[in-house]
Structure formats: structure tokens, C-alpha cells
Amino acid sequence: MKLYILYGIVACALFFTGCSKDEDNDVHGTENITDWFEVKDKPGELNQALYRIYKDYGLTIFVNDTLGQEERGVDAYGEPIIYTELFDPGYYVFGTYTDFDSIRLSVNEEDMLKALEVIEERVIPYLPKSGQYRPHSLLLVQAVYMHANVPKGWFGERPLPFTHSVYFRSLKGVMCGDLSSLQNMDDEELSMWAGRIITSKTLEMYTEKYQTEVDEFYAITDEDKKSGTYYDQNCASSSTEAQNPCENLGFLKWRCEDNEYKVTLSKTEDLHEFISAVYAYQGKESIFTAKYGEYSKILRKFEIMKKLVEKFEESLN
Fold it and tell me: Record's superkingdom (predicted)?
């Protein structure tokens, strides 16, 4: 009996301790987590422009792939452990994307300011206010280096290098390249550069929600192909495909080219280009029609994407 009484007293003590409302017994976080996406108010024209965009629009824009450093204790010898947070371009959980090579950071402040001007005028107004279709951040770089593998006789393949204006596979955000070219771009080229940023986070959504229409879009490209596909192909310079404009195949551009080969876009890249074009020529569709009037495939693919973009925009409201 005494043993049962003792168990009862202990149980009551534990119960009242657990139900205590004393604030001293509440659990509090002791670790300050660094927000690497916060833009600080720093002096200088570029820093002030980055800070203003962050405060006004909630969009973080980086100009360096090193986002910051902090001390995290000391090692066995008493030396500080320095942690460095990186943008990690091309990285995903299980490795690095095979088409990604490297980036070159921009050191020209005028190019960066031009990029911010274009982003504020032509990108931000079309981005969702929040959610999965809005980039976590943007990283401004001079160039994003990629490669495509092309045949090399009997000895396998060789990489054919090229640069990409926008690369969106980083977990941290979207890399925006071609900064050194922005100053010389015309209005259409600037709008396409902006359009690629706008659409960078929505591609998977289009293939998931609008699969039927997207398949119809892809089918137009290959409708005159007796076998195989035009997508993601290495066309030797002597081939019919390489000798004709890429627009004949239904593409807005080649992925890359040199004296020996021209490489066509993948399905994802083709989708990206046409959705970007819808945003770039919004309200100016007649210019697009006049530019590509002799290419039936392009006009039909553009009409499909225009309707899908309208459907997507309506779903956000």
C-alpha cells in the first residue's frame, strides 16, 4: 500500500510540474538563425538599389555567390570555425546537374545597375506576389557557362560550350547572366531576357497542369519528322537541319553551335523560350507575328502558349 501511495505522489508531482504556467519553464530557442536572404542597408549606389528593391518588392538580388560567413564555435585547437553560405549554382540534393559548368561573376557596377533597372521594370510587375512560382532570389552574373555533348567520331563525345542567359536549377534561386550584353540589347532582346526570368519557376507547373496542351505544343515541332525527334539533337553542319534556319524546325534559337555542329533545344528549353516570348511580346503580338510570319510552326506554338499563360495568370487571381 505504501508503494502505491508513493507512486501516486510522484505522478501528481509530475502532472503539476508539466501543467505549470510559470514562464521560466517554457521552452525557448537559443540559436539565432541567420537569414541569408536579408539585404542589408549599406552605402553605395548599387547597395542602395539592391536594398530598395528588397524593401519595396520583397525580392532578394545577389551580386556575389558567397552570401555570407559566420563563426560557428571553435575547433579542437581553439581556432574559430568559419561557415560560408554559397549560392551553389547547379547543385541539387544528389549532385550537380551535368549540363552546368561554371559562372563568371560580374565586376561592372554599370551592368548590374542596368540589370536591376530591367528587372524592376520588366520582371517584378509580372512575378506572383508570393508562392512557389516566385523565385527565392536572383543572382546577377556576367556569364553562365553550360555545355552540350556532341559526337566526336569513333571516340565518343566532346563538350560543346555555350553561355545561358538564365539558369534556374539552383535551390537558392535564379541566375541571370549576359550582364555585359544588356547595354547593347534592343527592346525585344531585353524583354526576352526579362521573360526568361519571369517564367523560370513555372515550367514544371505547365507540364503538370496543362499536359495535353504542352504535348500538342511539342507535337507541332516533330509533325514532319518521319522518325525520332528534332529535340535535343546534334545536327552536323552538312545536315539539312543545320543548313536551314532553326525557325524551320519550330525553334526560336539553337541551343549552341560551332563550325561542325548545331544543337537544338530540349523540350524544357523550347517551352521556356516560348513562354518567355509570350511575356516579352505581351501587347506587341503583331511584332512577333510579323517577325516569324513565314514560320507556321512558330506561330502555332506561340498561340498555344499564349492561351496557357492567360490560363495560368487567371489561376493566380
Answer: Bacteria
Give the confidence band of 77 by pLDDT, cuts at 50, 70, 90: confident
| Cα atoms in the Cβ-side hemisphere of radius 13 Å centred on 224 | 6
Q: Which residue has the higher pLDDT, 316 or 52?
A: 52
Q: Mean pLDDT throughout 27-51?
A: 84
What's the Cα-to-Cα distance from 177 to each of 8, 57, 102, 146, rounded to whole Å?
A: 70, 21, 11, 12
Strand order in the sheet with 143-151: 100-104, 143-151, 157-164
Residue in the block written with cell 523560350: 273
Q: Rounded mean pLDDT of 104-133?
A: 95
What total number of domains does the chain contain?
2
Q: Is residue 222 part of a domain?
A: yes
Please, which pLDDT band fits residue 249 given cuts at 50, 70 and 90? very high
CA 311 to the chain's CA centroid:
22
Q: Domain limits at 258?
A: 204-315
| 98 and 120 co-located in one domain | yes
Question: Does some domain include residue 155?
Answer: yes
Average pLDDT over residues 59-88: 90
Q: What is the mean pLDDT of the chain?
A: 88
- Angstrom CA distances, 138 to 173, 225, 287, stand at 6, 39, 29
pLDDT number for residue 95: 64
Q: Is 252 exposed, middle or buried (0-12, 13-18, 19+ CB in 10 A)?
A: buried
Residue 14 resides in a domain: no
pTM: 0.84
**Residue 1 placed within a domain:** no
- Assess whether 235 and 107 both reside in one domain: no
Q: From residue 203, give the alpha-carbon distance in Å to each of 56, 126, 209, 213.
A: 27, 15, 10, 13
C-alpha cell at 179: 550582364
